[in-house]
Specification:
single chain, alpha/beta, Rossmann fold, five-stranded parallel beta sheet
Length: 141
Amino acid sequence: MANRNAQQRALLVAYVVDSSALVKLIVNEQHSKSLSSWVDGCKQDLFISELARTEVSRAIARVDPNLIKQFNAIVTRFGVIRVSTQVLTIAAVLSPTTLRTLDAIHLASCVILGDDLTGFVTYDNAQASAATQNKIEVITP
């Protein structure tokens, strides 16, 4: 379950942000500025899968290893959803069956929040399609 007081709050409205979006907060890409503004102004809690820290660290290290410090500073804004047995069990049965394992884990991190999930922030087309198929609202600020 999410570790940033998610279990202690009576009502949580939250977004889950995937790795494709997190990279845009560090590396200047298309949509980077609009996403950064959206994150800065977001009143809801923001979460990432525990998996995202590793994925993004690897991705930005290929661009510039010095960006890791910037990433570590930014990632403190996000709560972390642990990759638990429950998350992995959900990921194993998500549709479509062609969904890649890591993408399924990100989506399962959304599902685990249940009704407290407001939406899923992703710029990955396959992941967005799978999220929609699983009735998860996708946003791309």
